[in-house]
Amino acid sequence: MVYFIGAGPGDIELITVKGMKLLQKADVVIYTGSLVSGNILDYCKEGVTIYNSASMSLPEVIDAIQEGIDQGKMVVRLHTGDPSIYGAIREQMDELDKRGIDFEIIPGVSSFVAAASRVKAEFTLPGVSQTIIITRKEGRTGTSEGGKISELAKHRASMAIFLSVQSISQVVEELLEGYNENTPVAVVYKATWPEEKIIRGTLKDIAEKVGDEKINRHAQILVGDFMGSQYELSKLYDSSFSHMYRSGKE
């Protein structure tokens, strides 16, 4: 069996319990070494075969999985964050399907929710935004299939932008097509890692601040008024609000 496991955003304790237990049993581990903390391999048992996929092509990854399966071994494909978000797992799963190899996906903590936790923010605030947009600036490995950032910005929803901090000035320019220049922004570099950095600002000044810190990779860009001070209280805990578990008081 092959297990695709989300390793979490960086802190090795943010892998799920299920993911950790499977990693402890694995005979073969193929991990995304450019993004996953190498310390997470401390969970592995002695004698495990480890591959760093940062230097491997898709055929090489699949061949390593096939070799493990042919030898009756348990294989873990360890991805950063949650494998369903920018994880490039569909192409791997399709290859495994072609070869009749069974697999399972174990979700993980994505970097966008880790970043929100580090800035102590809630994406979905009543009266502010009930929508989260997850996107990236178009580049060599992804186009704007769901709409350009400039188009998505017009929704003024809470937004988490992956893989784009290297183009922060262009990202800001596109965001200003929908948000105003005073919209709060946080850039979180390597959320939950020991070297984490949090840069706060607005669309007016965030590009300069990020440039001063020389951050050009491994960062989430969080945008929206959910990081502001104005919002409405939730009805869920409003003493006058009735629902199936509680009768409201006058």
TrEMBL record:
Gene this chain is encoded by: cobM
Entry keyword set: Cobalamin biosynthesis, Methyltransferase, S-adenosyl-L-methionine, Transferase
Protein name: Precorrin-4 C(11)-methyltransferase
Tetrapyrrole methylase domain location: 1-206
InterPro entries linked: 4pyrrol_Mease, 4pyrrol_Methylase_sf, 4pyrrole_Mease_sub1, 4pyrrole_Mease_sub2, Cbl_synth_CobM/CibF, Siro_Cobalamin_biosynth, Uropor_MeTrfase_CS
GO molecular function, one term: precorrin-4 C11-methyltransferase activity
SUPFAM superfamilies assigned to the protein according to its UniProt record, in alphabetical order: Tetrapyrrole methylase
EC number: 2.1.1.133
Keyword check for Transferase: yes
Pathway: Cofactor biosynthesis; adenosylcobalamin biosynthesis
GO aspect biological process, one term: methylation
Gene3D superfamilies according to UniProt: Cobalt-precorrin-4 Transmethylase, Domain 1, Methyltransferase, Cobalt-precorrin-4 Transmethylase, Domain 2
Entry annotated with the keyword Methyltransferase: yes
Lineage: Bacteria, Bacillati, Bacillota, Clostridia, Eubacteriales
The organism's place on the tree of life at top rank: Bacteria
Organism: Dehalobacterium formicoaceticum
Protein family per UniProt: Belongs to the precorrin methyltransferase family.
